[in-house]
Amino acid sequence: MSSQILLSGGDKYYSYSGEVFGDVxxxxxxxxxxxxxxxxxxxxxxxxxxxxxxxxxxxxxxxxMQVKLDNIIIIEAQRTAFYETQYGPNSFxxxxxxxxxxxxxxxxxxxxxxxxxxxxxxxxxx
Length: 126
Fold this sequence. Notes:
CATH class: Mainly Beta
Number of helices: 1
Strand content: 35-45%
Distance between the termini: 24 Å
Low-confidence stretches: none
């Protein structure tokens, strides 16, 4: 799934990617969630990625995530196994203006191309 689903109360929405992974051929970017229009109200979202196993932390080979708002990169982060074990899962929280396009993209590297990952999103209209 990669679209926005409105909850029954109408004041919250969610989206989840399901399991996503690359192949062994080359590093790639993989779209995980795309919401073309977040709605008529501003919202506050929490993005919660998860990973299927330890992430290779070889220099430059960390699994990454990119968040775009209206085609502008606002978050670009790479994870290491050390960070995961020391600080717990990474999550991002941000405000979205109404009628925004939100994209969450996985940044694969050769060291993590076959790694399974997921991302979940919950949004609260303000």
